[in-house]
Amino acid sequence: MSKLSTFTLYCSPSDTWEGIQEISEISKEQLIELNPHLSNTEILEAGIPIDVPLQVKLKFNKARISVAVKTPYAIAQEELLIGVAEDHRLGHDNTRIKIYHGTTSGGAMPDEVAWCSSFVNFCVEQAGLIGTDSKAARSWLNWGGSVPKNDWRTGDVMIFRRGSSSWQGHVGFLADLKGERPLILGGNQNNRVSLASPYPYSAILDVRRR
């Protein structure tokens, strides 16, 4: 089989070999040949990265939008239950965080690289939607549509300013508006996926929804 240009897909719980074959228009055997790293070719586990032909990326994303069975926030809640945290041992990284990074431009990175945006992007793509493909928190200012304050709800993507620079930021999913600070379900909060209130309302740059 000649070498194909590919992009990496992180399987959602609803993905099957049959579905990927139909959209990719190549056989299961060809897909397996593109993915020699797979130890189990009988089933596709959620979160497993597989390479699929690049030329069908948009077609694949549109198909996944139509069959999405979970919201990005629901995916984030599942990741919270896993207990994902940075591995601070010398020379070690949490593979799950590298998977988050792998959904964004530049690919997998060590877990000490800021990963709040990569986490949100992973959750959005796992839900069958198109993210920003960026490791930058403020990239989410251009995603979806802005939501007025009186319509904010659980699961919205909330972007904060961080520090005094024009590029630093933080992004996560709105969990609750009670209290002096919004409660956020996000990655890279205390070096882990967590529910936290890291920033005040005054630091909110925007709230987005698609």
In summary, what is this structure?
The protein is α+β, with helices and mostly antiparallel strands. It is 27% helix and 20% strand.
Task: Catalogue the unreliable spans.
Answer: none
Largest pleated sheet: 6 strands, antiparallel
Strand order of the largest sheet: 3-8-4-5-6-7
**Radius of gyration based on Cα positions:** 18 Å
Shape: globular
Chain oligomer state: single chain
Overall pLDDT confidence: 86
State which percent range the strand residues make up.
15-25%
Instruction: Assign the structural class, choosing from mainly alpha, mainly beta, alpha/beta, alpha+beta, or little secondary structure.
Output: alpha+beta
Give a written overview of the molecule.
With 210 residues, this protein is an alpha+beta fold. The protein has helices at 17-24, 28-34, 57-67, 72-82, 95-102, 116-126; strands at 6-10, 49-53, 145-146, 157-161, 169-176, 183-189, 192-196, 204-209. The strands form 2 sheets. The chain has a 6-stranded antiparallel sheet with strand order 3-8-4-5-6-7. A two-stranded antiparallel ribbon has the order 1-2. β6 (183-189) and β7 (192-196) form a beta hairpin. α5 packs across α6 (116-126).
